[in-house]
Prior knowledge:
By secondary structure, the chain is mostly helical. The chain has helices spanning 32-38, 41-49, 59-73, 82-85, 89-97, 106-127, 141-150, 156-168, 176-186, 191-202, 211-221, 227-236, 254-268, 275-294, 304-314, 322-344, and strands spanning 16-19, 24-27, 30-31. The relative contact order is 0.16.
Amino acid sequence: MKNGLEDIIAAETKLSDVDGAAGRLIIRGVSLDDLVATSRFEDVAALLLDGLFEQHADAASIRTLLGAARAELFAHVKAADAVLLALPPVDAMRALLARIGDGDDFTTAIRLMAAPAVFLSAVLRLQNGEKPIKPDASLSQSADILRMLTGKHPTSEQTAGLDAYLVTISDHGLNASTFASRVIASTHAGLTSSVLAAISALKGPLHGGAPGPVLDMLDAVGEPENARAWLSQALDHGERLMGFGHRIYRVRDPRADALKTALRPIFASGQADAGRIALAEAIEAAALALLKERKPDRPLETNVEYYTALLLDALGFPRNAFTGVFAIGRTVGWIAHAREQMLDGRLIRPQSRYVGPLPKAA
Length: 362
Ligand SMILES: CC(=O)SCCNC(=O)CCNC(=O)[C@H](O)C(C)(C)COP(=O)(O)OP(=O)(O)OC[C@H]1O[C@@H](n2cnc3c(N)ncnc32)[C@H](O)[C@@H]1OP(=O)(O)O
Ligand SMILES: O=C([O-])CC(=O)C(=O)O
């Protein structure tokens, strides 16, 4: 038995379907491509949370509620002391989030969705020696995140780029962090505990911690013509190429293409260095060719984290913040799964098979 629970169906969900063979992602009956083309973060939040709380909230009310929650939560930034600020941004953000009281209600859900946006932006500025910027409750979540990060009003291309990212990564079946969220929810510990557990699972380099290292790889390769030699050496040293491979997808991760499309307007309008796309494409082609040669029996394709790195970098996020930005988008998915587990499920408690020594016979 492998200890990765592959092929085990551990939940029934109406939230999202990851079809690994077809390379297709459906979120609440809508294909990812349609969702990215038509939705902003608040739309996908309304879609995912629909029917899971007593209150019904459409995208417009979620936008208003998130704005008010961001403004209210800014007071917690004061708790960011030197010890907390010495932590990596995702850990500092998680520590601030732990100050939000537990609860299973819609108000807690809204606060949990607003909190990573406020805390991550504030932590990044404080770590950079800058004053945190107060939220603007009138803005959309994406526009306000970019404004709180840079101090400038984002362009429409930048806001659309961040919305596309947050929508793309909002939910993804029973991935490791979502499973963690459901396990905690099944004990009725509360939504804050679920989200904290999920962030803790997300930050690992095999899950949501990959895009920072993707950018390190791009920088280390430097020029397209170095790609094959650099990647070969990394594989010779037994390293995994970040941004490639997936537990479920056996073909290309559809989110990689969605993000590649989303980043084009930012680069095309001169708001980021277009040479980066050419370099990323050259490295991607070399990586896919090498992985095919070295693992001919295991399809290893580009995953969501590869173009995430390029997009978030172009939007001005430092690479040590990428996992935190992932958490901003995925929190709504974690909350939806936690609520679904609470409403339809029971305590999660699988079995283990004991393979250790037996007590000595008396
Ligand atoms: C949002 C997300 O979580 S997306 C994933 C982000 N993570 C990454 O990009 C990190 C790089 N990728 C990986 O480590 C893996 O592909 C994972 C963790 C995503 C999926 O792993 P699994 O489905 O468990 O694949 P598994 O670990 O069984 O690997 C199968 C084989 O392919 C190899 N392999 C898998 N991915 C890679 C990779 N990116 N680079 C090189 N080799 C790889 C493994 O070393 C293994 O080889 P072996 O059988 O000789 O030991
Ligand atoms: O589904 C997974 O295993 C990992 C992933 O891509 C995600 O959580 O977005």
